[in-house]
Amino acid sequence: MANGRRGASAAELEARLTSDARHVVKAVVVVHNETSTGVTSRLSELRRVMNRLRHPALLIVDAISSLGSIDYRMDEWEVDVTVCGSQKGLMVPPGLGFNAVSEKALAANRNAKLPRSYWDWQDMLENNQRGFFPYTPATNLLFGLREALKVMKEEGLENIFRRHIRHGQATRAAVRAWGLEIVCEEPLEYSHSMTAVFTPEGHDADRLRKIILQNFDMSLGAGLGKLAGRAFRVGHLGSFNDLMLAGTLSGVEMGLRLAGIPHKEGGVMAALDSLTPAAKVIEPAKVAR
Amino acid sequence: MANGRRGASAAELEARLTSDARHVVKAVVVVHNETSTGVTSRLSELRRVMNRLRHPALLIVDAISSLGSIDYRMDEWEVDVTVCGSQKGLMVPPGLGFNAVSEKALAANRNAKLPRSYWDWQDMLENNQRGFFPYTPATNLLFGLREALKVMKEEGLENIFRRHIRHGQATRAAVRAWGLEIVCEEPLEYSHSMTAVFTPEGHDADRLRKIILQNFDMSLGAGLGKLAGRAFRVGHLGSFNDLMLAGTLSGVEMGLRLAGIPHKEGGVMAALDSLTPAAKVIEPAKVAR
Amino acid sequence: MANGRRGASAAELEARLTSDARHVVKAVVVVHNETSTGVTSRLSELRRVMNRLRHPALLIVDAISSLGSIDYRMDEWEVDVTVCGSQKGLMVPPGLGFNAVSEKALAANRNAKLPRSYWDWQDMLENNQRGFFPYTPATNLLFGLREALKVMKEEGLENIFRRHIRHGQATRAAVRAWGLEIVCEEPLEYSHSMTAVFTPEGHDADRLRKIILQNFDMSLGAGLGKLAGRAFRVGHLGSFNDLMLAGTLSGVEMGLRLAGIPHKEGGVMAALDSLTPAAKVIEPAKVAR
Amino acid sequence: MANGRRGASAAELEARLTSDARHVVKAVVVVHNETSTGVTSRLSELRRVMNRLRHPALLIVDAISSLGSIDYRMDEWEVDVTVCGSQKGLMVPPGLGFNAVSEKALAANRNAKLPRSYWDWQDMLENNQRGFFPYTPATNLLFGLREALKVMKEEGLENIFRRHIRHGQATRAAVRAWGLEIVCEEPLEYSHSMTAVFTPEGHDADRLRKIILQNFDMSLGAGLGKLAGRAFRVGHLGSFNDLMLAGTLSGVEMGLRLAGIPHKEGGVMAALDSLTPAAKVIEPAKVAR
Fold it and tell me: Which of B18, B65, B225, C139 has the most CB atoms in a 10 Å sphere around its CB?
């Protein structure tokens, strides 16, 4: 239901569900954080619509590029199924997928008539109770996940979310300083984990990306679908810190120069300005080493 | 013979060797690139002095922080012993030491009367000829060295040296933009692999280093000896690229702000300016992927 | 169609397909090498039955524990779908699954009416042509696979199959010397990649497995299903050599002693006897190092 | 002072020191465990001689292949300097050397007049007190050492020593069963970490080693010095367990066959016999998992 530059629309959802008096709609499926546009949908508002209309559809959320980077509240938002992967905020190589499933979704699964195997959770649930899997699990990635979760606990979820917020702000400060346009139109929906940026009309974003790759060995995300060639994407999530962001934005700024794309200088400085006041100085004396 | 902010002095060497008519001096020992100050001695001039005076002393050079980063010509400069390690420009973990030895030094070693074992190369040379070592070698590091040399061949020594020169220039551009003082006084002796920078009078360089470490997880080198507390050091050598340098200098600039050290803003931008014109744009079309 | 101690029966298949004049049966699904019993089904005979009866069912084969260990001929046996994983003979950590699909199976897939996503190959095929995946692939495991295939080419498929045959023979020689019973009843169907062995009546196979695990840090496979507690399994596949097999069988033999399970001594020696005559001596002189 | 097949002789030491009334001898230097012969010198007896004669020489011990594998008591035996490396019982890649130094040796070092740098401990001691090294340490290996020491604490030094004793016994049981001769003549001096074995007269040990390497991918130690071509060496130390030993000895036994070296069969079985009675069965019930 996302229209490209904005998140899933609560108004649109309301219209659709209102017209569904017979409850033909079985599930509302939303991507929490849309990787292709850098837009984060406001799930709490969607849930509010569903509850107000007392619509029984399941709320199914793809949290692949938000989980572990952006605050996500499965219980509070009454999400029925969360789909996630290992390779983004969880900082593990790709290869693991996760489902978190509500009682309501489990009941629906038990009653469903569609022949299925891959989407049947029962086998997994039964085996998991005894510490097993119904098939050979990707053990190496599970060890990686265990370590990643340990690392995340050490930093603290709250701190991790704050770090991503800071990096999103600093990235947007740079984009604005360059005079470029952020794809996401709605400030309430800015993604904290990645930012998609339009190149000016007539300037090929893919050419910029290639110049940056070849000159600075940095691979930016491509614009996808309608954004192909018109936008590039800057990821700022997972195992990432202020100086990596500064290096990343420096690569973009130098790339803009080399590509001859019209822009104002100083995006990197704007990012540093954004980062530094927010940085509460940790004084040497306070540190135990 | 280095006086801190300059490299080994050819004039001073000339004076010393001229007064050594009886050839009591057996070796001239020089550090090629002084890590504590960021000063690179001009070895060719020292050798010229020795040759002009026909002084038979050995020329022994510590090339630990220059080899693989800064042009070094053992044959051309008639160096007798080069001492090097694995952990700088060779990009291998610390643990390996190397000696490159001239015929003249080998002869001196054979004739030397000082009891010694560690410095006796004969055992090593004999074993090496048969593919062995006189004792258990650090095999893992040797595998690492083999891979590192492969990586270096792929980039090309000339390109590696040029990259270090660019990074040294960009770093000094940043330092000048900040209005800070470079420790090395002699432009002909600027080190391409690291830059030492004075903090202004009354501003503790170690406090700055700690603030940067704690806020940005970046560990700068300390001022050593007379420079303790008065200077910090920025390394830019080995497995290092433009964006890592940009991130590094961003950390310094934000650290200067957080530490309240008087400076002008914009060092990072000056570095980007220095890097980008020099970067010959590699156009996408030219790249085979 | 496997009855536990034997592979899929060609006679039984013939009976089933003969009675299926209306071609209700859409696929014959067989496990090539049954991990729970150590039985390898003779696929060529099954295919022969299907061809003789001109039955149009697809032949679908699970080659998970045979591919890369036991000779497998998808084209010759006209297999329509081969299902495989990374974690057995391919020696890569678990996490990758593979499908090899015939034109006939692709056509069936295109015409199938069952709603499906996971089993729809079209998306993957289209993306693969351009060097992409329809979703984030498990990149690390793909790098591992590339290296594993390189290793396998170096050894040579023929040699790999021969090595597995030798290890199966040596393992069975040990089992017979101990006086224990091999689960697989049909010598033509002995698995080359793993051997399941009955413990004598009244002797718990799981207790034996635990004693071996705790005394020798070796984890044998458990008997599965009807074999639970009655059999243990010895894997001899993948990155495995003669001395690892000898160590494995030594662990079993010492475990039998410690568990007080009646057996004859000398299984390990029988295995060495089996291995050594087969080993063509590679004379030092012939080896280039 | 070792005569090849026996350890350092207390009698010989007594004779030498008795004739040294003027204390010209400054140090008694002994290898604790001689890797080339598999002989462990009885240090307590040597110390007893020195004490009885009140000879002030330092006792310097090379514990490279014993430390962490064989009981070693620096304090009890009043050793003045222990020299050790990382690559044997400590299970770390080669590259680290250690010195443990008594007060007496430190005093001698301070008073020594021989010009030296490598053997001067003062610089290291001063730096270590502040958590530093006088030069760049082999950090990666130090991390490895930290982990290795953790692993060793988990197993327990006593258990580690017992494991090495069991493996030495089992190896010698195999050698005797083959009818071959152990290099070490004195049972009180058998090494627990490695065993050197003579091949019969006229049978080249190096040819045997090559056949084993080429057929079984196992590299045995060569006979060194006088033992060259006459003996091979089996290491059983460090990260090593019963099944690795069984695999190792299986490789030797099959190698003896392939090389046509006269021997009796059954060495491996003798080793299993030696290992199994000693193995106190750990019953499954007792194990917490």
Answer: B65
